[in-house]
User: Which sequence fits this backbone?
């Protein structure tokens, strides 16, 4: 086993300036990634950051690893090719709500469906930042933006629904300004084998400032957010007096201590169950908003299965070179 | 043996067309006959002609599938203009192919299928066999269906009629063996091999094969047998290969010689899909294939693989190439090796998906945003798809650039008897790798001669770097919006591709080396027809020569020398004049005549000769 050098956050910081707007949520994501990577035990040269286009996608330029800033929406496809060709690499994809769910929607769902072991960070600020303020596929219905002066008339995607609908095995939702939770979730996403999608609720100070504030603002957060922990009951509230129960095919908020409800009645989070029904409800739920790892299920990955097919074929063939192939099968020897 | 007088006519070459419903097994019979001819030592070239519909309504003109085989005792380079022998399994097959047979040709029909119903389905309001339509031909009205059925039923194997009908093509084969004096044993072995996994079908097929032979042998109507001699002096190891298979093998050879793993990212599209089908069978040589969710992901996964140090390849046809252009630009600016194979078909849009054309040329040369130079090369025979696929890999890897390889539907599906190349002797391919921790490494530091950058792979220690679609600073590869830097980098990318001309062969002239009256100019898949037309005319005493281009962009360095030696130049291509227009921009000092055809069909030798004679007479 190769000895892994002890890495620190500084090992991942590039020399040049970081060029996001002051106050952009991307800074805290970058810091969390640079804090998390020394903890995952992967040599630096094995780590690759791929991205598409958009504010989020400048990410690789700020990471002192191998990096590839690609095309709008196509980061998922390029990362898929890279990881399939080189299963030994540790591949991350930085993308945004527009990059992954509008122009790159097709590649995003197929990366998930194939279960390629890539850690995908979806910077969800619910707006197009780099093109200066048009609505995105996650912009709330009715929002007034530069391209919807009379309000959007499109229903937004919830990334988690899309991930689960595409047979996804890992989905987490985190908040940009909660660095410790962010870091912990990144480590969990990396540990999960297969496509791991992390939706980061990110603030765009310029075009969509405080978009998440009504839910996750300091004053209201504890009442509006349930922090999920595997094996723990789904309890929330400033007084930790509320919880979730299953009501038919839906989730319902109940108050502990009312109507005979005790902590024991509250649903316990199981992120590893194969059946995605409750994960789907959690991903969809807006009150309270579920934060943390919603789903983490193990399954064989695409690149491993592909490599196994290749290795098996290589081990069992008599034709080991192209020259041998050229002389195999039906040959007409004319003398 | 019958005691009738048999006349054996020796032929230099013969063209046989097999035609029937797309489910009739005509492609198989054609392949079987060409295998037999190959083992006999004939030259050959085949060309399938299949409908876009998988199983169009039976018996209709839309559902006719054909397979043409040209065999010869001498050089054969086209599937033949017109057929000497037509096998028509039903009235629709006869109707669609009458215009492709020579006057006086032998036409074998399955007379059982010429009932009123089938004639009407084919659009005849009369029975063509009873009409004057066929007066100028030798028609053999064979009861193929009924004799095949009775032969099978006599075996008492309990085989149903539907299965018995699938042996009809062996009846045809039996007749051809007699007609062309071929060896029965070879065909029996073919059947045994073909049905090795369904042994119950061997006996009925062999029985029907003999029935067909015996029928032809006893029939008074066939007075003539043909004989096509083996090619004199032909020696070596040969195999039949289609252009698509040759392309796939050439790619594998290129990757292997470069010491790289081959990665194909591809989305199925006619007529390129067989490259994907072929490569996915060769995981045993370390090949990985990735059937992508769309054309864009096809090229993007290949680019990702190339970034990771594999040789990334994507295969497609014209519409797919259009979808890939943005990503092709990324490969240009990131200067990664990549091979894009475009198997051209009739366009625009869905166009004629199963037919051949050369109309993607300007798309290949110019069809990208920005100043985006990319080398373009073209194969010209089914077999040399291997060589040009190999060459595409060599250029891509050694010059660090995406390369477009153009083939077409005609090359892709046509087969030729191909001499197996000397693999050892093929040129080396040397990737410009970097050693771990090389303190001198910079992402955009260039080789002084080729101007390529070097290829540092993720996983290598001490070479971490970022590339991407944004313009990068010269040498260092940081994001740069500096005006002069963009000028410098744009110039480098253009010059790098131009310098590939220093590494490719000179353009050859077939014919008058010192120049002459007429230079025929072609490129890509039309080589066979152009070469034969020029050759025949030279034998007839005309001063005609051929310059057939495989290297399109950049052009060979001596191109101007070649052009200027001739009084007239005619550019022949299966489009409206794209290569002619390209030459006009490169060498505007010369006038260019054109001969163009866009019918989804290859050139015929006869029409080319007619055009050349007109030009010489002017």
Assistant:
């Amino acid at each position: 086993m190769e000895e892994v050098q002890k890495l620190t956050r500084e090992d991942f910081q590039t020399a040049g300036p970081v060029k996001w707007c002051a106050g952009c949520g991307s800074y805290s994501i970058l810091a969390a990634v640079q804090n998390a990577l020394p903890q995952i035990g992967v040599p630096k040269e094995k780590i690759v950051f791929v991205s598409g286009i958009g504010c989020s996608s400048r990410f690789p330029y700020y990471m002192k690893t191998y990096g590839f800033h690609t095309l709008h929406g196509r980061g998922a496809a390029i990362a898929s090719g890279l990881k399939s060709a080189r299963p030994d690499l540790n591949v991350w994809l930085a993308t945004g709500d527009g990059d992954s769910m509008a122009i790159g929607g097709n590649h995003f769902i197929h990366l998930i469906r194939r279960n390629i072991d890539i850690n995908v960070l979806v910077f969800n600020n619910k707006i197009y930042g780099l093109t200066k303020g048009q609505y995105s596929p996650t912009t709330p219905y009715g929002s007034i933006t530069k391209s919807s002066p009379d309000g959007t008339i499109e229903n937004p995607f919830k990334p988690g629904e899309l991930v689960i609908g595409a047979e996804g095995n890992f989905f987490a939702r985190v908040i940009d300004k909660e660095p410790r939770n962010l870091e912990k979730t990144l480590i969990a996403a990396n540990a999960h084998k297969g496509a791991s999608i992390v939706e980061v609720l990110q603030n765009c100070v310029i075009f969509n400032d405080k978009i998440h504030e009504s839910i996750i603002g300091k004053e209201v957060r504890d009442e509006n957010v349930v922090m999920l922990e595997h094996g723990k009951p789904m309890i929330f509230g400033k007084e930790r007096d509320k919880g979730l129960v299953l009501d038919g095919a839906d989730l319902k908020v109940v108050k502990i201590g009312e109507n005979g409800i005790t902590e024991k009645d509250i649903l316990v989070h199981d992120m590893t169950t194969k059946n995605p029904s409750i994960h789907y409800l959690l991903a969809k739920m807006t009150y309270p908003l579920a934060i943390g790892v919603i789903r983490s299920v193990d399954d064989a990955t695409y690149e491993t299965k592909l490599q196994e097919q290749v290795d098996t074929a290589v081990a069992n063939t008599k034709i080991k070179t192209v020259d041998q192939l050229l002389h195999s099968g039906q040959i007409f020897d004319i003398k | 043996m019958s005691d009738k007088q048999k006349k054996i006519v020796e032929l230099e070459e013969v063209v046989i067309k097999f035609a029937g419903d797309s489910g009739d097994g005509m492609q198989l019979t054609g392949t079987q006959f060409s295998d037999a001819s190959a083992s006999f030592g004939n030259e050959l070239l085949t060309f399938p002609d299949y409908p876009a519909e998988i199983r169009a309504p039976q018996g209709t003109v839309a559902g006719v599938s054909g397979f043409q085989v040209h065999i010869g005792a001498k050089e054969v380079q086209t599937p033949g203009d017109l057929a000497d022998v037509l096998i028509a399994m039903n009235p629709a097959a006869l109707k669609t192919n009458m215009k492709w047979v020579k006057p006086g040709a032998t036409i074998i029909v399955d007379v059982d299928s010429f009932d009123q119903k089938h004639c009407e389905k084919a659009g005849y309001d009369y029975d063509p066999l009873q009409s004057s339509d066929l007066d100028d031909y030798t028609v053999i009205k064979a009861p193929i269906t009924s004799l095949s059925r009775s032969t099978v039923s006599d075996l008492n194997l309990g085989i149903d009629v539907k299965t018995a009908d699938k042996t009809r093509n062996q009846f045809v084969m039996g007749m051809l063996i007699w007609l062309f004096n071929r060896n029965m044993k070879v065909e029996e072995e073919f059947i045994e091999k073909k049905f090795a996994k369904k042994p119950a079908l061997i006996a009925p097929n062999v029985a029907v094969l003999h029935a067909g032979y015996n029928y032809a042998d006893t029939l008074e109507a066939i007075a003539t047998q043909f004989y096509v001699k083996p090619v004199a002096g032909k020696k070596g190891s040969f195999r039949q290969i289609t252009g698509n298979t040759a392309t796939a093998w050439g790619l594998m050879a290129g990757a292997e010689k470069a010491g790289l793993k081959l990665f194909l990212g591809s989305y199925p599209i006619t007529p390129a899909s067989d490259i994907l089908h072929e490569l996915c069978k060769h995981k045993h040589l370390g090949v990985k294939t990735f059937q992508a969710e769309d054309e864009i992901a096809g090229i993007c996964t290949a680019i990702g693989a190339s970034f990771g140090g594999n040789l990334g390849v994507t295969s497609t046809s014209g519409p797919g190439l259009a979808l890939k252009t943005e990503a092709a630009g990324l490969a240009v600016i990131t200067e990664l090796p990549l091979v894009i194979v475009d198997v051209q078909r009739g366009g625009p849009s869905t166009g004629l998906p199963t037919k051949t054309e050369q109309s993607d040329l300007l798309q290949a040369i110019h069809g990208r945003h920005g100043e985006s130079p990319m080398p373009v090369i073209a194969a010209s025979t089914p077999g040399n798809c291997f060589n040009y696929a190999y060459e595409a890999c060599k250029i891509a890897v050694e010059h660090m650039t995406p390369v477009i390889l153009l083939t077409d539907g005609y090359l892709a599906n046509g087969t030729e008897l191909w001499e197996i190349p000397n693999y050892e002797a093929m040129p080396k391919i040397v990737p410009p790798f970097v050693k771990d921790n090389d303190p001198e490494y910079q992402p955009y530091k260039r080789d002084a001669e080729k101007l390529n950058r070097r290829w540092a792979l993720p996983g290598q220690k001490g070479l971490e770097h970022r590339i991407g679609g944004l313009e990068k600073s010269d040498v260092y590869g940081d994001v740069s919006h500096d005006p002069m830097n963009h000028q410098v980098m744009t110039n480098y990318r253009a010059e790098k591709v131009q310098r590939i001309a220093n590494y490719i062969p000179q353009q050859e002239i077939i014919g008058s080396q010192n120049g002459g009256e007429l230079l025929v100019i072609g490129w890509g898949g039309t080589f066979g027809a152009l070469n034969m037309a020029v050759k025949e005319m030279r034998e007839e005493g005309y001063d005609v020569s051929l310059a057939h281009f495989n290297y399109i962009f950049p052009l060979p360095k001596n191109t101007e020398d070649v052009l200027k030696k001739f009084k007239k130049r005619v550019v022949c291509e299966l489009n409206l004049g794209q290569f002619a227009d390209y030459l006009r921009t490169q060498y505007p000092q010369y006038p260019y005549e054109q001969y163009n055809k866009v019918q989804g069909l290859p050139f015929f030798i006869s029409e080319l000769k007619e055009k050349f004679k007109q030009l010489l007479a002017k």
The mean pLDDT of chain B is 94.
